[in-house]
Amino acid sequence: MSISANDRRIIEATQSGLPLTPAPYAEIAASLGLEEGEVIGRLAALQARGVVRRIGVAPNHYALGMVANGMTVWDVADAEASRLGAAVGALDYVSHCYLRPRALPLWPYNLFAMVHGADRDEVEEKRAGIAALLGDACRDSDVLYSIRILKKTGLRLTRKGGR
Fold this sequence. Notes:
Blueprint: H1 5-14, H2 24-32, H3 36-49, E1 68-76, H4 78-89, E2 94-99, E3 111-117, H5 120-134, E4 138-145
Antiparallel strand pairs: 1-3, 1-4, 2-3
Helix pairs in contact: 2-3
């Protein structure tokens, strides 16, 4: 799938993150000598073509004071997993939620929900809220706490020739 020179420039200008300003696309456009609408339109077209999969926020929770970060994992009934996953993902304290296949017999969990808190007690309170929402459809759960930030970047373009 080929991209134009301007599309490449836009991707390179945004791949390390958007500027933290009220008008990030306008700032990117100005730095590239383009109009803000063109940058927005080109990014939308790249998403529609599947060149850019998504544009999302990847906050540094530690910098925001959320030093307890727990991936809660749940063994929920398969027949209820999609409905319950959508409900868990809609909670304002769940940053991301997804379904994954189990890896039996060692890993029975199929629903994952990331929660953040100022301390582990706060994460456990939020975990209890998820457990209440899941009710009897949940057979087991656990929480995996982060001990450091791992890679928080997406795909990076390289210049032609691998440089």
